[in-house]
Amino acid sequence: MHEEQLDTHPVHCPYCSMPFDLPVDVSQGSHQTWEDCPYCCAPIQLRVEVSPMTGELDALVLGRDDEVL
């Protein structure tokens, strides 16, 4: 992980709706991963879309573990 490419984004948990800041590593390019909610500990699916041209975050999609992203 490259610290200079670690951005924090405000999001809401798809389970408990609590807001929190989510660090996103764009150095990996577009990818899918899982993070646990810091409040309710539910598993959150993350789809990170990074522009291949600029290397910047294009989209960040959060979903429940039973949703298809």
Automatic annotation (TrEMBL):
Pfam families in UniProt: Zn_ribbon_21
Source domain of life: Bacteria
UniProt-recorded name of the protein: CPXCG motif-containing cysteine-rich protein
InterPro entries in UniProt: zinc_ribbon_bacterial
